[in-house]
Specification:
The protein is α/β, with parallel strands linked by helices. The protein has twelve helices and twelve strands. Helix 5 packs parallel to helix 11. The structure holds nicotinamide-adenine-dinucleotide. The site of nicotinamide-adenine-dinucleotide has 23 residues, from helix 6 and strand 7. This is Glutamate dehydrogenase.
Length: about 425
Amino acid sequence: MSQHHVLPSYLRQDELGPWGTYLQQIDRVTPYLGSLSRWIETLKRPKRALIVDVPIELDNGTVAHFEGYRVQHNTSRGPGKGGLRYHQDVTLSEVMALSAWMSIKNAAVNVPYGGAKGGIRVDPRKLSRGELERMTRRYTSEINFIIGPNTDIPAPDVNTNEQVMAWMMDTYSMNQGRTATGVVTGKPITLGGSLGRKEATARGVFVVACESARQIGLDIAGARIAIQGFGNVGGIAARLFSEAGAKVIAVQDHTGTLYRPAGIEVLKLLEHVAQTGGIVGFTGAEPLAADEFWGLETDILIPAALEGQITEKNAPRIRTKIVVEGANGPTTPLADDILNEHGILVIPDVIANAGGVTVSYFEWVQDFSSFFWSEDEINHRLERVMREAFASIWQVALEHRVSVRTAAYIVACTRILMAREMRGLYP
Ligand SMILES: NC(=O)c1ccc[n+]([C@@H]2O[C@H](COP(=O)([O-])OP(=O)(O)OC[C@H]3O[C@@H](n4cnc5c(N)ncnc54)[C@H](O)[C@@H]3O)[C@@H](O)[C@H]2O)c1
């Protein structure tokens, strides 16, 4: 971590976590921003960070308290937008970084949003359905005054899903006294959700993987794919790649690692995970030691679990042609440099996984107009947005001779800081 950042008093220099990664990414883009770099400090602190206590009554009659966050990093280009994560390791630094990556991502694909993110420090697997609902509703009530269809719109992230979004929408609506479907995206279809939203992030990963493969002359049919994370993003991406004739040769999740050089039967593995909650115990592939996953020879490696997975420790062993970041923040800056030195093309999170927020944007627009589009129309528009964003970022990378990540940051930060400059400071 470079030392010169002025940190807010609520962060500790030695415990910056993912926020430290984000600050280094901002340092790398600053020299390319010209006179807009005058505004760069705007990006180095969140606009608003709310920490809430979430008390609920457990099924056994006792009361439990959970720590919840909602961070709005930047709203220069529009309302805050970003997911909600339930995980036992959630921290303020992590939610801050995730909210900042949302600002960059939304600007990189040019959807009219700022960046935000939420989280609760909880292992949701330890809660009953009733407890999960009570926690979601209480959290929503606690952050009620800073979210809304025009202010900040949550969506699913790790360990949250369309049911959690339905509870959030209902709680917010009850507090408002009217149904406000546009307060969250990633809702069930019957409650104003969008066709194609569930698959959107993975579809975006697949589209940018195909575009980048084309740039380096790699054929997707027959390509060897390894995926870390087999949830919404990783599981559906595996299906899309295998439908396109690629071979998913390795998969890792929180329960284990699987390897099958001839290609895993993805539909069977998805069924196994739906029944058991994880990939462990699947008999259609060999179990592998977790660490060996990173050394496998592949054509495309897709981290789609949590941040900080590719570090200076495992990056030197990675033998792949393209890393497509399905997860947010999976690669540390040091690891990024190692991959670049090894000639591995890294397609960064802020473009690779932007398909989710793109269809969230479509969902929000559909909710406002109460007019819903067909799945074909959504997928078609999604693919167009992703291809155009990829092409313009690729062009910037070539022009400036920088990594695709820095190019994406150049495009995004220029848009955000131009908006900041034109709006000016109030008062
Ligand atoms: N859901 C979306 O629309 C969306 C959009 C953009 C980015 N993302 C990002 O994609 C990533 C995955 O999100 P998701 O929605 O698929 O979550 P999910 O909860 O559906 O799945 C998470 C997966 O990660 C695995 N995992 C957790 N800890 C792990 C570990 N230590 N080692 C290996 N695997 C582990 C889990 O087993 C699970 O398979 C996150 O970084 C998230 O921020 C998600």
